[in-house]
Write a structure and sequence with these properties.
Layout: E1 3-6, E2 13-16, H1 21-38, H2 42-45, H3 81-87, H4 90-93, H5 96-122, H6 135-143, E3 148-149, E4 155-156, H7 164-179, H8 181-208
Antiparallel strand pairs: 1-2, 3-4
Helix pairs in contact: 1-5, 6-8
């Protein structure tokens, strides 16, 4: 229980401050919920998932944890006494976005690492061998992917993760590539093939269901 030491003349008196466990628990849950809601990004949001909630509390932060695994994510939530005295509740609320971003970054790194290990193990990798990004490489990569479509035949849930410098090249040249008749034809034929594969997968799934 918090205590406050008040200086006295020959002796010091102690003032016992009241504890508010229900209020503290409510605040803790609010902060955890806000961090959970905001720790979402373009990559993880684009992938269908089932949220499994384990616990609703926090734990003391230690620099080293013996039971930590490569798939664990964690962030340190620290608010100093002087910040609370100066800013009140805002001292805690101001930390939410920073912590949420840190958790999201960790989730994306774990996801990308898992995808890399799986594709390397199955041989489903397109190696550019130092060549610059091009329509041919894009088509080659798409050929090895299972692509989903909506009821109108449009591509859905397709996410391309590339380094910033490659993203800039794609954004700069995409319009010109799409105007290239040879590329447009090859892309159209590939998508027609992928739509047929998707319909076959959907039909097989419905039969099993």
């Amino acid at each position: 229980m918090p205590t406050e030491y008040l200086p006295g003349s020959p002796r010091s008196s102690i003032a016992m401050l009241p504890d508010f466990p229900r209020a503290k628990k409510a605040v803790q849950r609010y902060l955890i919920n806000q961090i959970d809601v905001r720790s979402k990004g373009h990559l993880t949001d684009s992938i269908p998932s089932i949220r499994v909630r384990e616990g609703d509390g926090t734990a003391p932060f230690t620099e080293e944890r013996r039971d930590k695994t490569d798939s664990d994510i964690e962030a340190r939530f620290e608010v100093k006494d002087e910040d609370v005295i100066r800013d009140g509740c805002a001292a805690s609320l101001s930390k939410i976005d920073t912590i949420a971003k840190e958790l999201e970054t960790q989730k994306e790194k774990i996801l990308i690492s898992a995808i890399e290990k799986t594709t390397e193990a199955t041989g489903n990798v397109t190696d550019a061998k130092g060549q610059p990004i091009s329509p041919r490489l894009i088509l080659e990569a798409l050929t090895k992917m299972d692509i989903e479509f909506d009821d109108k035949g449009k591509i859905k849930n397709l996410v391309v993760v590339v380094p910033p410098e490659i993203a800039q090249v794609i954004q700069k040249n995409a319009a010109d590539w799409e105007k290239d008749p040879e590329y447009a034809k090859a892309f159209g034929e590939l998508m027609a093939k992928k739509r047929k594969e998707w319909r076959d997968r959907e039909d097989s799934r419905k039969l099993v269901d």
